[in-house]
Amino acid sequence: MRLQFSRKMLGIPYAVFLLFFVILPMLIILFYAFTDKEMHFTFENFVRFFSDPSKLSTIAYSLVIALITTLACLAIAYPVAYILARSRMKKKFVLLLLFVTPMWINFVLRVNAIRELLNWVGLLGEANYFNTIFGMVYDFLPFMILPVYTSLLKIDPSYYEASADLGAGWTRTFTRITLPLSMPGIMSGITMVFLPSMTNYVVSDMLGNSKVTIIGKFIYEYFGTNWNMGSMVALILLIVVFLSTWLTGGFKEEDTVRGANI
Amino acid sequence: MAEHIIELKDVTKYYDDNLVLENVSLYVNKGEFITFLGPSGCGKTTTLRMIAGFDTPTSGKILLNGTDISALPPNKRPVNTVFQRYALFPHLNVFENVAFGLKCKRVLNTYENAKGERYTKKEKLSKKQIAEKVQKALELVDLEGFEKRSISTLSGGQQQRVAIARAIVNEPEILLLDEPLGALDLKMRKEMQIELKEIHKRLGITFIYVTHDQEEALTMSDTIVVMADGVVQQIGTPIGIYNEPANTFVADFIGESNIFNGTVVGERQVRFCGKVFDCVDDFERNEPVDVVVRPEDVRMCAPEEGKLRGTVISVVFKGIHYEITAQVGKYEIVIQSTDKREEGDVIGMNIDADEIHLMKPKYTSNIFEGVITKRNTVQFADGEFECDVTQLYPGSHLDEEDYLVTAAGEKLDLTGTEVRVEVGLTDIAISDDEDAGGTTGNIISIIYKGDHYRLIVRTDGEDEEDFVFATDDLWNENDRVSVIVPKDKIKLSLKKAEDKKA
Fold it and tell me: What is the CATH number of the domain that holds A79?
């Protein structure tokens, strides 16, 4: 029998990948989360997590830090993206590049540099939460600028003209046209900043002087001693992430024409 | 007397360094349907955008009801636009799109307080007022019941109607339409033409319409402004422009035309196609003229009865008429007639005196400013050409070292001398080998003149000079060619009296 090559066979490597690197690990986490050290089924990890106020407050802290980081990134990124997208400057890509290049420099190096900078101005160890958020905003800013810039660039300039033609001033054009039409970019920026800033404990460790614990740190520490509890925290984080993505409309099919997920 | 609602005074517009509009002056009467007509890149859309306020003139003024509005932003002008690709807001539904302008609007309302004093307040329109106005506008464009529909579910024609409703709902003094029917198919376009005309009649406001479709312009307009190359070519009524085109460009662009080179031979007498015809235009005797005859004005008759006699070389059925091409000597004449002829038929042709339109030729010769280079060549129009410099000084010759020696024996170095270069209309050849000639450019215009084509080649360097010439060969517009001028056909004359001595 001759083996017939069909287009479907191209999918096999991906299917294998998905099976071994996505589905199987998730099942393992699920298994660990609901068993104890003797591999017996239990809800204890779940109960312990939610009955420990310190763990709940860590989750709350993580959420607040992530929220502030995201809002700060948005507040900085939107004007930059707007100005770059709407300017007729010929060399504007150079400016954009400057904002985005830090992304290509080694992450540890960047965080270390910030740490030294904070040490130099004397803030290290003094304002741990501020330092953590400062570092995260610096780290994740490009991930907000790029999608917002792209979505603003995609807006047909004739919409601005039509809006002005119909009597709208700058503010009205911005709130009624620009903002809703750039919503997809804002949403993907938020997803790209919010989730990492909840889990990226390297930043919080190095800049927060190990005084700031976020949920990512928790998971890391548990996997040193207690895989079952670690898996449970990972599972809970997964659910939080899932919920927030669902709430911001991240699961809708990208619909650039309708534009607004509001 | 009609009131001028919009007036353009010497408006010039540059985009970066490109001149797109040159000294345009025109006025628009209140309530009329005026069309800016021309090929793409002629400046018609730029003119419209400046009236809307999206672009500001580099120099010149735009007056609205007598006041200068050149610097007024678009949202402050009582003007609304129907955009080329509609520019409907994709995140809003039909109602929200149409209501957009109304929600921006503030109206003065007068009230009376308890003491009986009257006072005015600037207020938004109420929800009810807005809903009523939107409803009326949608009725006008036959889209009742579409309020809740999303824009992306509408057909091209429906989007077009929403765009019109969105503009007219604001009751603008002027409605600007930028090739609004360009994206529709032929049948839909014809229907919308009639409907737009109807809307214009019902609203009574001024319509300024931009199109490259001459038929559309002729059908709809009260006044047509024909534009080409950033310059107004002619302003007139559709009938006026069709019957009395101001120049060969207009004649060629609007409708079909036979264009010939002619010579005035007597009082109201012109010679073309080898025969002398009576005409109604009076020009100086022996003056070369362009002769324009519309194909439907050439009457066919029996061979012996016609002033012109020729053989039919092609017959094309065009629906309501036949387009017949006849060879008369070396000339080709296009005729439109409802009578059929067969290829090879010998026919006679007559043209009435008042159907022969004479116009001064725009081009009689090519004149450039040039500079003599070291090697006794001349530089002009972005290129370098071989030339005979001895013509600058009668009786002179070149010595062994290529210095010019005048008749008096004086030795001159002509390097850097500024000269006026003249090249006749028949002394230019072009080639698609880019290295064959002295300069290169693109063909920007082709007009058939019965027995030859008149071409204009625009050089692509910074000078952007035009070469106008006659050729027997058919080329295509936008072809890239090199321009060849034989050495003995370049006529040089000194620009200034001051000669540089060696």
Answer: 1.10.3720.10
